[in-house]
Amino acid sequence: MAGNTIGELFRVTTFGESHGRAVGAVIDGCPSNIVLSESDFVADMERRRPGKTTFDSPRKETDQVEILSGVFEGKTTGGPLALLVRNRDVDSRPYDILRSLYRPGHADFTYEKKYGHIDHRGGGRSSARETAARVAAGVVARKILEAQGIELQGFTLELGGIRAVRIDVTNAASDPLSCPDPAVVAQMARVIEDARKAGDSVGGIVELRVRGCPIGLGEPVFDKLDADLAKAVMSVGTVKGVEIGCGFAAARLRGSENNDPIVPEGFKSNNAGGILGGISNGDEIILRAAVKPIPSIAKEQETIDRQGRPAVLELTGRHDTCAVPRIIPVLEAMVAIVLADHLFRWKAFTGAGLRESG
Q1: Where is 171: in which H helix or E strand?
Q2: Radius of gyration over alpha carbons of the chain, in Å?
Q3: How many structural domains are present in the chain?
């Protein structure tokens, strides 16, 4: 199975399955002298960890990150940084039915057709459990970005059709649903609860904002910064669409409305989302990810068995009602990994130095 690595100079490879012994990440290209300890991972891993609310999968994982290599006396050495997250609360019994049936909305069908042999337990490699490794790698990437004054934050823009109107990122940081608009939080919570009681699920939209990104990140043709960000975000299994800046709304505007006027002080608007011609322009980078409803639901669904015969599937087991807000630290991690990689590529091209991370 190819395609488990992202990045050119800052390279992240993830490994492991949902019901295997562990998931993890290996980072190649991590600079030396970054102050790093296992406690640095706690906050972001806690944000992604299941079992915190009635909307989450009740799977109880501590999601403690173990540093296996690449750190000595509290600082990175420049060698491969290996991070491990053990699976401690695994119950594969509810998935026995998936030895013979495909789950609608999941990768079971395509994985088996491609590979001929799959791990049916909780989705195996295609499970959202794999994203724990991404979050761990993202913590390291964020340390690199923060040392350069680059800040990143994601929040719930929309959930179950309820959209935030007022954007207050400080409220998003403290809200259980990571919503920036206190006026709609209760509506969002009701939508999730109604879906949970009905044995169903809901989707949402996450917005991510990056401040302090220098001008010049990204390559102008195939490795455009927005293209690489879109690929990274789309690589998260439940994401089905990505917008940069004005996004799809730009298709309904005229050029005179969509162009961002340039004045001596900078750009007067930001429909471009901080990226022009695939290269960061120094403005705030804004992107949004469309998150589909969780496909594992308790309702009966039409499917087929491994022999192609019609069947009905009614799933049991432990599943989320909505991927939002648990997916937010995952998406932040993917954005951070891409930005760290392009930061090093920018440094290599310009000869610019990077400040040490602490």
Answers
A1: helix 169-174
A2: 21
A3: 1
**Tens of pLDDT, residues 71-89:** 999 999 999 999 999 988 6
Looking at residue 33, which CATH number applies to its domain?
A: 3.60.150.10
Counts of helices then strands in the chain (DSSP H, E): 8, 18
142: domain range?
5-350
Please write the tens of the pLDDT for every residue from 14-67.
999 888 889 999 999 999 999 999 999 999 999 998 766 655 566 566 889 999
Amino acid at 38: E
- Let me know if 353 is exposed, middle or buried by CB neighbors in 10 A (0-12, 13-18, 19+): exposed
- 193 inside domain: yes
The answer to whether 12 touches 26, Cβ cutoff 8 Å, is yes
The secondary structure element, H or E, covering residue 273 is none
Is residue 61 in some structural domain?
A: yes
DSSP-based three-state secondary structure for 255: helix
Of 65, 52, 72, 49, which is closest to residue 14 (Cα–Cα)? 65
Inter-residue contact 186 to 245 (CB < 8 Å): no
DSSP states of 74-95? TEE-SS-EEEEEE--S---GGG
Q: CB 3: neighbour CB atoms within 10 A?
A: 6
324 in a structural domain: yes
Instruction: At 179, list the tokens.
Output: 């919503």
Residue 358 in any domain: the answer is no
> Contact, 329 vs 48, CB < 8 A?
yes
Predicted TM-score (pTM) of the model is 0.92
